[in-house]
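Illustration: LPS export ABC transporter permease LptG.
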Amino acid sequence: MQLEFFPSRTMTLYIAKMFAVRVVAVLLMLVMVLQALDLLSESGDILAVHGNGQAQLLTYVGLRAPQLVARFLPYSVLLATIITLITLNQNSEVIAMKAAGISAHQILAPLFLVTAVISVGNFAFNERIVTRSTATLKAWQDAHYGPIPTDSTARSNVWLQDGANILYARLVSGEGKAMVMTDVTWHRRDPTGMVTEIVTAKSATYANPGWRFDHPLTFDVQSARRTAVKGDAVYAQGVTPTQVEIRKADADAESITRLSRSIAAIHAAGHSTNELESRWWHKISGPLSALLMPLLGAVAAFGLARSGQLFMRAVIGMALGFAYFVLDNAALAMGSFGGYPPLIAAWAPFVLFLLIGETVLIRTEE
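Result:
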């Protein structure tokens, strides 16, 4: 029995089912409570827009809920681990399994199996659902909860430097040379920084170089005269699509493949990519954090079994889990600032707490 990774098939299914049910229950509880609180804080801004009503509130819930699920799934796994192991401990099932020759790692094996499935599902959920809902929600919030942009990859309120001049686009959609700007404004400035001319257009496309404004209107500040330009005209020749990607690259709203392209474009332009690279690695290490939770919460079932300090062991398990999340966020912040290399910033907390969890488990039980 000691040489097998899993206990018996019946025991594995029993523990795995108990654990999975508790993960779902805790996750639903957290998401429902946090969603209600978040909706209370945002409902005033949503309903302040003319025409918005219950449908828009439900739309907000639909866009916000995936973010909450992805963010609090590891916490749910941690709490479900502690609840499951406390239940097994209180019912003396851990003692019975130990008496049958099942090791602590074998008791935890069904939990690792469930968390492995959760980690893979969480990664796919982040890539397919969360990134798109995040991009759409941010674009909607940038539009002050007005009409929702139809392109989930759109970038809102983009300001770009064109030498001494300024280019603004309310919405930018598409990628590369196929990029399209909507509601564009170009400000010509003199050497002192004063605006001398303002050019507006409904849309603009990349002209390589510059941006071709569709039937622009020019406003001369000194004469206060507005003039309609016949046909199209090219402005902002110093702005490229790469600058737009640099200005608005958002790791939370981009899939891992699209983020890779953004990193490559920014790196080719000679800019630092430490923050985005840290986020890229964290897209993998983040979902895998669920694998650590059974190990960190194992103290609730093993060690000091006859002391009766069940509550204290549960607190220790929660403290280890939350310490991981704190250190993970701190390391990610340090990686964003360039204090840690991106790979270390994303993976060091995972490896550290894996070793801590194994050490605590072995020294207290094995």
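Reading the tokens back as a structure: The CA atoms of residues 217 and 228 lie 5 Å apart.
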